[in-house]
Every structure is written in structure tokens, then in C-alpha cells.
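Hello Y.,

Per our agreement to keep a running log of every chain we model this quarter, I'm adding this entry. I've kept the format consistent with earlier entries: sequence first, then predicted structure.
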Amino acid sequence: MALRCYTPRVLVEVAVAAAVRGRFTYRVPSALAPGVSLGQRVAVPFGKSRRATGYVVGFPASAPDGIELRDVVEVLDPFPPFTPELVELLRWAEEYYLVPPGELLRAALPPGLNARRGEAGPARRGVEYAAPAEAAAGAAADPKALARAPAQRAVLEYLLARGRIPVEELRAAFPKGRPAVAALARRGLVRLETETPVARGALLPASAAAPVLTPAQAAALVELDAAAGTFQPFLLHGVTGSGKTEVYLQAIARARGAGKGALVLVPEIALTPQLAGRFRARFGDDVALMHSGLSDAERHAEWLRLRRGDARICVGVRSAIFAPVQDLAIIVVDEEHDPSFKQEDGPPYHARDLAVVRAKREDAVLVLGSATPSLETLENARAGRYRKLELPARVDDRPLPEVELVDLGRLRRGGVAKLPGLLAPQLSEAIARTLEASQQVILFLNRRGYETLVVCEVCGAEAQCTECAVSLTHHARRGILLCHYCGRTERMDARCPACGGVRYGVGVGTEQVEAAVRELFPAARVARLDRDVVTSADDTAAVLARFARRELDVLVGTQMVTKGHDFPGVTLVGVVLADTALALPDFRAAERTFQLLTQVAGRAGRGAEGGRVVVQTFNPRTPAIALAARHDYAAFAAGELDRRRTVGYPPFTRMMAARVEGSEDGARRSAEALAHAARPALGGEVAMLGPAPAAIERIRGRHRWHLLFRADGPKALFRVHAALARVAVRPPGGAAIRFDMDPYSMM
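Predicted structure for the entry above:
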């Protein structure tokens, strides 16, 4: 009798794309085995579902004892979405950030890929440019020309402000603007041109020659060149306007000249679309963009170009840390201090810190750039773990703006009881002189609305959200009270619903500042930039384009006006109230205040004219404000680091948060159960803060409790987490529990 040949089925370890902890072993039928490799996306039966998406993360030698294995149903892609290097990075992130593996793997892929097969992304060819035609200026000046096409007018105004730019920049600025561009081209108001992609070996396209570097930029580039081919983290500390981006561009050009790849992480492309244009102008179609301004299909297409090696440079936001860049040689994290690099919803990873891990694993140079480095990064440089490069002066030796502090408390004590829109006489006079000189003004206040609190003068009742433990903000233009956390609105009534007494507003927001400027300077052209008036990237780009074209004199806004904009016409920046973040229950409050003031002050004086900054505050002697006014980062950082060392906060310790949400009783019981489970594991190495209600006790009807754990290093925190995880499987009262390693938000 002939012997039957039997090929044993391959075993794979799979992470299921869901918030499920653990990895699961499956058999691979022999027919599917040739198509299965590390990082592959597969369909598997899971629980009661016959088909769930999973990712192959390993190949176990044997099956777990006592488990009846099930078979992989289908291999979903012609090649693995994840490279072996990315699988290892994601496995590290899963263990460090205490998140289910499949949840993190799913978050690492573009939405378009999660919705379709890997090969189905749309193709892109060449580099497409848009430029205003000769008739464009006349059409923009004619109020009737595009009266029924506001989207076309916004795009045209942006092009007139920016000139000939890659269409990719327009896509970043106007995610839904493609039909408008096409319509403008049909009208003869816009020219569309396509250029051949840049040859892979070229350093720089001839049409986008690099400018001459300053001595400090050249010295930084020499250091970066010397480290090529090895893991070496650098802190590039440069004042605002010192040319950090040009150092990035030339360092990346050197990497591309050697046939290597590059990854650039930025906080928000939608607020600085010019950045996308600079990279595309320098490197052409070798650049792939990864950000939410693109459609799912476009993001899938960009990801696919990187995965296939058709593009070797990725510019993207936080999630681009997982982009499949081939032969990675350099990673840049621009504005590395920005809190948006920390994911707060979903898997709570920090893209900057993962950049360090990825660069180390792939022997890449890492450049962390900022005018106000985070204290964690600065301490790493001080300890010798990072090499520090300095750009101490602005390009062309333009001076940093003069900063004047206005003591609002002193004005009040001097009898100035009412300041319209919180504009002190010094700031009002500075605005008047700036407008007389035909120059532009930015006014910054990190509070939306007209009044931040509405109170009854009879019974003292505050207008509060019924779903969140916060006060409602008065938005006068819309006549409503709005919750900025859940979006709930109610009509603004002058009478108290509880007692019928008269209600009055307290506090100032950007809407009131805008109204005050319009009243004080009726001839000025004023606009506001905050989440109330710009609900999309298209709206944001339209306002910024008008300001860039100097069709606006004064721009009032929240922190949206601080993010890397370069307006040569701005010679005055007014900080309406510098104290808004200082009172928050967050150990980073002073650091964030200093960073925000420095960033917004850096918007002034970037052109040929000098700049001036007027900062209004009730706390002029607070180091975060006083030292920001002197542009003295070194003194602020030294003092803040000493304070952190004394009280035992990062960067001298590590922290883990346990966040609990549920019913009032369920959240409290779950938090107490976590504390009870943690105590035996503290071991004298870990300090536990809480359990306690969160600073905002209720959001969207769900009650919130927090526990914070602090230790010298992560190992002790992982031990505590192991004790907490047993409670988190079935928490009392059905509350949801989320762990956050290295938390950034204390709210």
C-alpha cells in the first residue's frame, strides 16, 4: 500500500482587529500557506463571528494546550501591509502602551486599506501644479464674478496668495476643493500643469534649488551628515524663524541621494499646508502625504506608494509614525513639543516617543525640532542621550520681536474697571499705530465664545451643561449657550430659569474680542479663526488666504493662529490673556503656557519690518510669562526642571494613568476596586494618587474617575498594571477602564 504524503498545517499567531487583549493561534490550510507571511492581513473566525480581520504577528512552534484550533479563512492582501520592522515596532508599542494588539495594528493602517483589499488603491502619476491665470486677479476683485461659487472663490484667493503650488498643497488646505479647482480651470482662471516625477537619484530638482544656509544651519547639517547610517537622536533647538525646515529638507535630500527613505512628522498639516508644498516642490512625487485632509482612497493610495517603494519620503501627522517607508534613514519630528503627537482617543501612543524607538530599530538618524523643546526632550539632551544642535538666530539676522507685558491687575487696581473685549489701552494704542502703518495684527486668546460663564445675579445659579460637569459658554452671535465638550446647546435667555432673575455674563472669549476690535476700529477688516467660525479645513484655508493676501487687517483667534504660519505683514501680536492655562490642574500648565506664548510671539516680525508683541496678564511675574517675554527658554527650562525634580514629576519619574468612565456608582466602584488591587503591587516603589473624580467629573453623561501611578521607571508601573488588568476584565458596575502610559492630559 502506497504511503500518503501529509503536510502539517502552518500555525500562525493572530492579533484580531478589535479591542481584545491577547493573541490567538490559528491553523493555516495548506492551500493558503504560500500566501501567509509576517504582517499579513487575514480573515479568521473569532467568537461567534465567522469572519473577523486579523494580522499575522508570529509563527508559534506548537499549539496552546487544551485549545481546539480553528482555520484561517482567507488571506486578504497580495502582500503583507506591515513590514517585519513595523510588526516589531507595533508589538513593542502594544506592550509599552498597554493596549490590545489588534486595536493598535488597525489604527496603524489608513482607513481606505481597512475598507478594501490591499491592491485596490487609486494610482497617482507625476506632480500636478496649480497656478492662477492672468484673469484670476480681476475675477477675485469682482464681487459678482464668483458670487455663487464660494468654494471656487476661496481656492482662487488662496492661489493668488501662494502663487504656483503643488495641487497636493491645495488638497491639504481644501480637502473638498478638487471640484472647485477643476471648475476654475474650465473658466480659464487657473492653470493645471503636470511635471515628470523627480529622478530617484537626484538630490534636488533644478526648479527648487535650496537657499544658502546660515553658518548655524550649515553646522547642524554637518553633524547630521556625520551620523548618517547610524541611530543618533538630535535635538534641533532653533528660535522661531531660524530655518529649521530648511535643515530638514537638506538632510533629507542627502538621504535620498544615498537611495534611502525619510519620514517627517508634523502636528497638523491642515493648519500649515505650505509645508506640504515645500516638500513637494523640493522632492516632487517622491513625497507621499498622510493626513486626514485626504479622502480614504487618497490616503490608501499614498500608503501603497510607500509600501511599494514608489515614494520614499512620507510627510504626515501622528499616525504616519507607522507609514511603511522603505530603507528608512532619517526621521524628523517637527514641533516635537506639540501635545497633538500624543493620541488621546484610541490607542494612547506618543508618536514622538515611538519615533525614537523606530529610529533605533532601523538605524536611522532622528531629528526632534522645536523653538520650545519639551522638558522630556531637553533632559534627554542634557543627560547626553540626545545631541543638541542650536539655531540661535533668525534667518537674515532679523531680530526677535520686542515683548511688552501689560499688568491687568494693576490696571484694575488703578481704577480701570471695564476693558472692552479685555483690550487694555496699551494694546488698543498698539493696534491703532499698526493699522495706521498699513500693517497687520494677530490677536490671540485661547477661549472661544463671547462670555465663558453666565450667572444669575439673584440666586447665583450658573448655566451648566446637563451632560457634562462644565459651564456653558455664551455665543452671542448665535444667541446660544454651548457646551464645548459634548456640543449640547440651549437658547440664551436673559432670565434665570430657576428664579427668574437677570443673568449676566463673565469672562471674555474670541467672539467678544472680535466685537471689541470692530467697535474700536470700524474701518479695520477683521476676521476670526476658531472652531466656531471655521468648521472645516476649507474654511481655515480661506481665512488664512485672505490674511496672506492682506485683505484682512486683524486676525483674532485661538491657538489655531499660533501653528507655524508665516505672514510677513504681521508686525503686531497681541496676547489678550496669557493666564488661561496656568490655573489648570496639570503639572505641565506652566510649560504649555511658555510654549504657546513663544509660538504666538514668533508670528510677529517675520518680514522686513520689525515686530512687537503685547502680552496682557494678571500674573506678569510668573516665570512662564515673564521669561517668555524675554525669549529666555534656558532660564525657564532650568527653573521648571528644578521644580519637577523637587516634586517628583516627569521627566524625572514615569507615570501611568487609569481612566474610568461609567455611571456615577459604577465609575466610583470600579476606581475603588482598581485602587484595592493596586495597593499590594506598589511595593514601596510606586506612588498612587487617587482614586479621585477627574478634573471634569462628567462628560456626555458618563462619570469619570482617575488614578495616577508614579515611579522612577516603567518596570514598576508594568507590575502595577498586571494587578489592575485582572479588575479591568470585568470591572464592577460595568465601567470602561483605559490605561495610559506617559499620560499628557491630566483632565
